[in-house]
Each structure stands twice: as C-alpha cells, then as structure tokens.
Task: inverse folding
C-alpha cells in the first residue's frame, strides 16, 4: 500500500461514500474503489461494510483508520520539516469551530498565521461545540474551537478567549431599567425566550448556570430554538422574545451596541465562560496543525 491509498481510505471512511471521496480527492470512483481494495487485499481483511446507503468501517477498518491517520501525519511531518528547512511551508488546514470563536477569533488567527506562512490555506467548518468534539473523537478533524467543555478523557482543552453571556430583550421589555444593570433570574422565567440549539456552547453554559442556581430549564418559557445568532438578533428586534447572547456579539470592541434591544446581566447567575482550543490527547497533530495550535495559544496569551 502507499500514501495515496491510505489517504483515499481515510476519506472514504470519513465521508461514508466512495463517490464523495472521489469528488473530494479529484479521482474517479473506480480509482477510489481500487485503492481500498488494494489495501484490503494486502491486509487480507474486509475494512468497509458496503451498504446501499453508504459505507461504514468494520472493526478491522477502525484499526486501519486510526493507524492511517498516524502514518499520514508522520509523512506530513517529514514533508513539513523539509519544507521548513527550505523556507517553504504550505498546506491546507481544516478547522471546526463554534460560532463565536469563528467570528471573533479565527479571522485574526488566520490573518496572523498567513502573514508568516502565506502558502497555507484554510477550510473552516461551522458547527456547534458538541459536533466539534464529536468530529475530533471520530478522527474527522485534528482540533477545533468550542465554547464549553464536554468531558472526555481523550480530550484536552486549552483556553484561548474569555467571554460572558448577557440577556438581551426587545426594546419594550424592562425599558425603565439601565443598560447592563442586573435583573433577577425570576424576571426571565416568564419572558418568551429564544434559545440556542442543543449542543451549542452557549446553551450548555446557560443550562449549567441555571442548574447551579436551582432553576430547571422546564421552568423557562421557550418561544423558539434557533441555531444562528443573527436570526436571534432579528427576532429580538421584532419583539419575538429575549435571549442570551455572547457579549462579543452584542458589543463591538469600542462598546458600540450591535443589537436592537435592551441588554442586562442576571443577578446571581454565573455566565462568564472561556472559549477553548480542543484536541485529542492521544493523537499526534499534523505538523501544520501543531504549528497553528502553538500560534493560536501564543496569540491568546497576548490579547
């Protein structure tokens, strides 16, 4: 077997499809099939369950998949060190990120990293925090950025950005109160709320804070579950309901408000949080991924 065949097997396993892997790798489907069959023949093992709805890895396939990742990363490490020695670093990084770090951290990181390594390109996957973690555990990506910690012994989290959640209401709700003043938890229970989807970092931070305060989620009046922050902002401005949003999505760096509505803190509710770079403890990052990780951690220590 060779590197191309292993890369093909990885993509088929990740995408669950020969045709999708062929499209991503710019190969014909027969070539992709041949690559996988060559590995199976050499190892004398069936690596994929071939079904009408797609393919999944067998137990033997899981073993080959994990080792293939390590082999490719080792190969990439060799290439990276040679390119670094020759002053030429290039490649493509795939990063999964939840919404807030994708908007408020990644643009600066990518800009700064490409200043040093202009031949590096990026692909940003926009998913919620739980899916970032799931993709890392499944081996689909090397690392990502999340807004909450999802406990798993195989994961390591390193803080890269501070944040807090604020409560934003339509203009006619609590209009007699001062901006960024505190209101009670009891004041939000009967308000129609627009909440983030299950699996978002914002949702997890809010749920944990409410439970710590002794408030159950079923005590809240939920009018909508929405995945995207800009839609939530629009719904607040229309008076549909109130919501908890990242401070960074509500105020810019100069303090200018970015949403139509009234903004409050919630008394006795701990809504401070961090954003984290998360990666697999037992899996070696690609050399390019390792370089970007170190750059991100260094950047976060000075901002």
Result:
């Amino acid at each position: 077997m060779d590197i191309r065949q292993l890369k093909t097997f990885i993509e088929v396993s990740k995408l669950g499809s020969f045709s999708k892997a062929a499209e991503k790798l710019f190969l014909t489907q027969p070539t992709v099939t041949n690559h996988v069959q060559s590995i199976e023949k050499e190892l004398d093992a069936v690596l994929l369950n071939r079904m009408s709805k797609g393919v999944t890895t067998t137990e033997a396939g899981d073993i080959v998949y994990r080792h293939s990742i390590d082999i490719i990363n080792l190969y990439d490490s060799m290439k990276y060190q040679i390119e670094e020695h020759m002053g030429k670093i290039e490649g493509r990084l795939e990063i999964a990120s939840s919404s807030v770090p994708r908007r408020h951290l990644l643009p600066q990181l990518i800009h700064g990293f490409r200043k040093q390594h202009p031949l590096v390109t990026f692909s940003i996957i926009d998913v919620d925090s739980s899916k970032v973690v799931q993709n890392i555990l499944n081996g689909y990506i090397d690392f990502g950025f999340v807004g909450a910690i999802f406990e798993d012994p195989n994961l390591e989290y390193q803080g890269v950005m501070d944040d807090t959640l604020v409560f934003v209401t339509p203009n006619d709700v609590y209009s007699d109160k001062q901006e960024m003043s505190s209101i009670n938890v009891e004041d939000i229970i009967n308000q129609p709320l627009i909440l983030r989807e299950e699996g978002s970092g914002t949702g997890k931070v809010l749920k944990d804070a409410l439970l710590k305060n002794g408030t159950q989620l079923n005590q809240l009046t939920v009018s909508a579950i929405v995945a995207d922050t800009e839609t939530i902002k629009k719904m607040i401005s229309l008076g549909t309901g109130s919501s908890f949003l990242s401070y960074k999505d509500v105020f810019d760096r100069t303090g200018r408000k970015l949403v139509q509505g009234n903004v409050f803190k919630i008394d006795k509710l701990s809504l401070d949080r961090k954003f984290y770079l998360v990666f697999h403890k037992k899996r070696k990052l690609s050399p390019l991924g390792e370089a970007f990780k170190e750059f991100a951690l260094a950047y976060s220590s000075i901002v």
In short: DSSP finds twelve helices and twelve strands in the chain. The two ends are 46 Å apart (CA to CA).
